[in-house]
Specification:
The complex is a heterotrimer.
Chain A (H helix, E strand, L loop, with lengths): L1 H20 L3 H21 L3 H31 L3
Chain B lengths: L4 H17 L4 H22 L13 H5 L9 H31 L13
Helix pairs in contact in B: 1-2, 2-4
Chain C lengths: L10 H24 L10 H12 L4 H9 L1 H21 L13 H23 L8 H16 L9 H26 L21 H23 L9
Helix pairs in contact in C: 2-3, 3-4, 4-8, 5-6, 6-8, 7-8
């Protein structure tokens, strides 16, 4: 169990660093989704299945979807495509 | 210094705050807020974890009779459930503000918001 | 802080980051000393664990904390979600058309059946919130994610905004009405007035499944209306 939780900690740390310090916005949003998956696994190991399910649907589904829709909407207005 | 889930959650909190301070783009500020909020939720759940105990669901008869020494703390889990959903509501509102800012000013760079200056 | 952002190196931002790192080290030291990881620290929750199964009848103890012992916090959260949906509806203009995109085969095939399958899974998770891990919030977001696929493709659609907003308001009203019935019958707001039943059967735990069904439909309709605002744009008229 210790090797697995160490792997999850490293995955979450690396994806959080990429999310904060990356210049490209789409890469940062996808790294945020991977961080949410790492966090879901961490919640599972801390014996909290309710919270793990909530973090999975919200972090990897709705939050990423909202970010990508907002980025697409801003680009669509900027280049004035029809 | 021991490596457990406390170090991960404090690392995420510090990283989120640094992301908010060092960002010019409003979208990067929102990403920093999301990382900060994930760190705080993880910290609350790891405070409630107790070694060797199970999740707070009464799935066999022995637990249904008395679950006193056998389950993890259910109170932080209920509060963090609320906090995660409120966090995504906050993110939806922040992204609506970013889209509105882009329509009004043509950019999401916060140093271009100069209308109240001077 | 805005002044410092004009330069290439954000001096005040770097100073603030150093202070935050020092704060983080101090926080970690305090946590490991006073709240050691993995030791028993339950104070209030020891009573909830003792009373949980027998006083509410729910098999999932987190559900009994969220909807029975701390039900007022859940009412607060329902209000915050409502405020956030109204704020998004105020800021973004209601569009009528989706931006045109190339025809995608996978999306077209998936949008025919995916909302129904995902909606079924979401309804299962909402209705079994008091037995298995899950509940109203998780199931509501799952239903909204299923509808999201349909929203990406529905070109020139008729938007029934009145239905979404009135459904959300009706569910919030039902939640408060059940609470007031509990106030009349039992003396406290959101008192559990239906019979508890046997722990582990479907019809158990009093009003808890009913409250979760209201919350699930409310959350789903809120997020569908938020996503709808994000995926439509206004047709610009030529001057």
């Amino acid at each position: 169990m210790s090797i697995l939780s160490l792997f999850i900690i490293i995955l979450t740390v690396v994806s959080a660093l990429v999310a904060v310090f990356s210049k490209d916005r789409v890469v940062a949003v996808l790294a945020l989704a991977i961080m949410s998956i790492g966090l879901t696994a961490a919640f599972y190991f801390l014996q909290a299945p309710d919270v793990a399910m909530a973090e999975a649907v919200v972090g990897a589904g709705l939050s990423t979807g909202l970010f990508l829709f907002a980025l697409k909407k801003m680009d669509a207005e900027k280049t004035k495509e029809d | 210094m021991q490596i457990n889930f406390y170090t991960l959650s404090v690392f995420l909190i510090v990283l989120g705050l640094i992301g908010i301070f060092l960002s010019r783009d409003f979208i990067k500020t929102l990403i920093g807020i999301a990382v900060l909020e994930s760190g705080v939720n993880l910290l609350l759940i790891s405070i409630g974890y107790i070694d060797g105990r199970l999740a707070p669901i009464l799935f066999n008869d022995e637990l249904k009779k008395s679950a006193v020494g056998m389950v993890v703390d259910p109170l932080p889990q209920a509060l963090v459930l609320t906090a995660i959903v409120i966090g995504v509501g906050l993110l939806a509102f922040g992204l609506a503000m970013a889209v509105w800012m882009n329509n009004r000013f043509g950019t999401t760079d916060v140093s271009e918001l100069k209308e109240l200056k001077g | 802080m805005l002044e410092g952002m004009k330069n290439k190196y954000n001096l005040s931002g770097i100073l603030a980051s150093v202070v935050v790192v020092l704060f983080g080290v101090l926080l970690l030291k305090t946590l490991n000393t006073h709240m050691p990881f993995g030791k028993d620290k339950m104070q209030v929750a020891a009573q909830y664990v003792e009373l949980g199964g027998s006083s509410t009848g729910a098999q999932n103890m987190v559900t009994s904390v969220v909807l029975s012992f701390r039900a007022l916090d859940t009412l607060g959260e329902v209000t915050v979600l409502f405020a956030s949906a109204m704020a998004v509806a105020l800021l973004l203009a209601p569009g009528a058309v989706l931006w045109r995109r190339k025809e995608n085969f996978v999306l077209k095939v998936a949008a025919k059946w995916m909302p129904y399958l995902v909606g079924l899974i979401g309804a299962y998770i909402v209705s079994q919130g008091h037995l298995t891990p899950g509940g109203g919030f998780q199931g509501g977001v799952i239903i909204a994610t299923g509808v999201m696929i349909m929203l990406l493709l529905a070109g020139n659609r008729k938007r029934n905004e009145l239905f979404l907003h009135s459904l959300e308001a009706l569910m919030g009203l039902s939640f408060i009405t059940v609470g007031i019935i509990g106030l009349i019958k039992g003396g406290s707001f959101l008192y559990n007035f239906l019979p508890n039943g046997k722990v582990g059967s479907l019809f158990s735990a009093g009003i808890l499944p009913l409250l979760y069904i209201f919350i699930g439909i409310k959350v789903a309709s809120e997020f569908v209306s938020i996503l709808d605002r994000f995926t439509s744009k206004v047709e610009k008229d030529a001057d």
